[in-house]
Specification:
The complex is a heterodimer. Chain A contains ten helices and eleven strands. Chain A is an alpha/beta fold. Chain A has a domain of about 70 residues. In chain A, strands 7-8-9-3-10-11 form a six-stranded mixed sheet, sandwiched between helices. In chain A, strands 1, 2, 4, 5 and 6 form a five-stranded antiparallel sheet that branches. In chain A, helix 4 packs parallel to helix 7 and helix 5 crosses helix 7. In chain B, a hairpin with a 2-residue loop joins strand 1 and strand 2. Chain B has a single domain, classed as P-loop containing nucleotide triphosphate hydrolases (Rossmann fold, 3-Layer(aba) Sandwich). In chain B, the strands form two sheets. In chain B, strands 6-7-8-3-9-10 form a six-stranded mixed sheet, sandwiched between helices. In chain B, strands 2-1-4-5 form a four-stranded antiparallel sheet, covered by helices on one side. Classes of the chains: A alpha/beta, B alpha/beta. Chains A and B meet through helix 8 and helix 9 of A and helix 6, helix 7, helix 8, helix 9 and helix 10 of B.
Chain lengths: ~280, ~260
């Protein structure tokens, strides 16, 4: 299998009064058309890793890598026009909260069509047609209403589905989903995952699923990278997560309360200074 | 007799001619020393029930009793000596320009406590923060530390009932474990009564002896911890929640079977 995306020794640094502070410190992975999970707690650098792939490191941060390659294209050296062909077209990103990442003064339909028409030469009618199709694909029951609705008129789950539709309207090869379900209710969460799952298996899309929820990721992805303090401390097969070897992964897994009951008090994650070396 | 009693509680928000009935006749009882959970998805009215108890939501029907006394109108100061609340988001519930010391001293000043100094020190110790945190501002604290300050603020008046509105949902898993352990320890030390609202069944199963499942402002089902652990749900909605909490793969299999 040829790799869709190769990341080697990715480093992201932010300047500070005491010199640059590295928040991502040498992340490497390669992935094909699979579901890759990146798990970590807040501040572990998981979201920045996802953004760096699209060249969206927020300034004044600087991302460097030995290799950052998508389907043979060196993303480090990509020109403006190359990025134009990649962002939103071949790699898309779904953000955490639909409330903040949809344009509040544009209808869903206009936003969907804008994405499509930026990347495809098409008439308005075609774009509209595609938009409806995509809303159907993410199982929105009433696509006509949603096309004409503003983001505030939709519930969180609907908004998130609309955003996924927007990201998928160009049929990207890789989808980076940054906490796509964290703002959603559990029952809606499962539905959104089902949609993502189908898209990965039906369209042969690659998916990077970034989340803080270890249990969810392990039940959804094929492979999981566990990040701590800017580094990947462990890579495990999702089904083997319960047998993970790194103490951080184990600690993170064990400190979750369980419905079936378990330890009381809950085991506390004892952080070892060595993990961050 | 139950310490906290809600009978056919109704909450209706009115804006102009629009009415939204957020809570539609919810009844429950919480005994002294018990920990009671309210579970539901967003919009189910679970937080509104807590806010109604505190006098922060317009009660339009039914009654709430604390210690046998019916609560009517604005809550009086002595109510807040008995009942305190911890809010969901520790980033929003602490005044950004007040130091921890000021946050903790204010309730003491309002209620006319004399020994404020020692009480503030004690409250910080109780929640596992040292004296070093006393003169810090919220932005100098992590999420978990902020939530500890919020818990200290609630405990400083020595209430009997603590209302917890999603106390850990804004926190990382490892920090969640620490805060849940803290709440557990304080309850057993002081014999407090908890009402905990959460969307996370596993948190409620860990913390509460009994729980109520809410949907669309109504109580769907009341369960004990044992029946939850055995997954003995009587209602479809509760079963759906239980399935969803299994994670993606298990939920898929459950649905297929």
């Amino acid at each position: 299998m040829t790799d869709l995306l190769t990341v080697q020794n990715l480093r992201i640094a932010f300047p500070s009064r005491h010199g640059p502070v590295e928040v991502v410190r040498g992340v490497s992975f390669a992935m094909g058309k699979e579901r890759l999970g990146i798990v970590g707690e807040s501040g572990s650098g998981k979201s920045l890793t996802g953004r760096a792939i699209l060249g969206l490191t927020p300034p004044p941060g600087k991302a460097t890598a030995e290799k950052l390659e998508f389907d043979g294209i060196d993303l480090r050296e990509a020109t403006r026009s190359q990025w134009h062909d990649i962002r939103g077209e071949r790699i898309s990103m779904v953000m955490q909260d639909p409330k903040f990442s949809l344009n509040p003064v544009m209808t869903i339909g206009r936003q969907l069509m804008e994405t499509y028409r930026t990347h495809r030469r098409s008439t308005r009618a075609e774009a509209h047609e595609r938009g409806l199709e995509m809303l159907n694909a993410v199982q929105i029951r009433d696509p006509d209403r949603v096309m004409n609705a503003y983001p505030h008129e939709l519930s969180g789950g609907m908004g998130q589905r609309a955003m996924i539709a927007m990201m998928l309207v160009t049929e990207p090869e890789l989808l980076i989903a940054d906490e796509p379900t964290s703002a959603l209710d559990v029952t809606v969460q499962i539905e959104v995952l089902r949609i993502l799952d189908r898209l990965v298996s039906d369209r042969g899309m690659g998916l990077i699923f970034i989340s803080h929820d270890l249990r969810l990721v392990s039940s959804f992805c094929d492979r999981v990278l566990v990040m701590y303090a800017g580094q990947v401390v462990e890579e495990v097969k999702a089904t083997d997560l319960a047998n993970a070897s790194h103490p951080y992964t184990k600690g993170l897994f064990n400190c979750l309360p369980r419905i079936e009951g378990g330890q009381r008090p809950l085991p506390i994650l004892e952080r070892d200074a060595d993990w961050a070396l | 007799m139950a310490l906290l009693n809600s009978c056919d509680l109704e909450v209706t928000f009115t804006k102009g001619s629009e009415h939204v009935q957020a809570v539609r006749g919810v009844s429950f009882e919480v005994a002294e020393g018990e920990s009671y959970g309210i579970v539901g998805e967003s919009g189910s009215g679970k937080s509104t029930v807590l806010r109604a108890i505190c006098g922060l939501a317009p009660v339009t029907g039914g009654s709430i009793r604390v210690d046998g006394q019916q609560l009517v109108g604005a809550r009086r100061p002595d109510f807040y000596r008995k009942v305190q609340m911890v809010f969901q988001d520790p980033y929003a519930s602490l005044h950004p320009r007040h130091t921890v010391d000021r946050v903790l001293s204010e309730p003491l000043a309002i209620h006319g406590f004399a020994d404020r100094e020692t009480r503030v020190e004690q409250a910080l110790e109780d929640v596992g923060l040292g004296q070093g945190f006393r003169f810090r501002y919220p932005h100098q604290l992590s999420g978990g530390q902020r939530q500890r300050v919020a818990i200290a603020r609630a405990l400083i008046l020595e209430p009997r009932i603590l209302l917890l509105d999603e106390p850990t949902s804004a926190l990382d898993a490892s920090i969640q474990a620490e805060v849940l352990n803290l709440l557990d320890r304080i309850r057993s030390e002081r014999g407090l009564t908890y009402v905990l609202v959460s969307h996370d069944l596993s948190v409620v199963a860990h913390m509460c002896e009994r729980l109520m499942v809410m949907q669309h402002g109504q109580a769907v089902e009341e369960m004990t911890r044992e029946s939850l652990q055995a997954r003995n749900a009587a209602q479809d909605y509760t079963r759906k929640l239980l399935t969803a909490s299994l994670g993606y793969r298990a939920a898929q299999e459950e649905q297929a079977s």
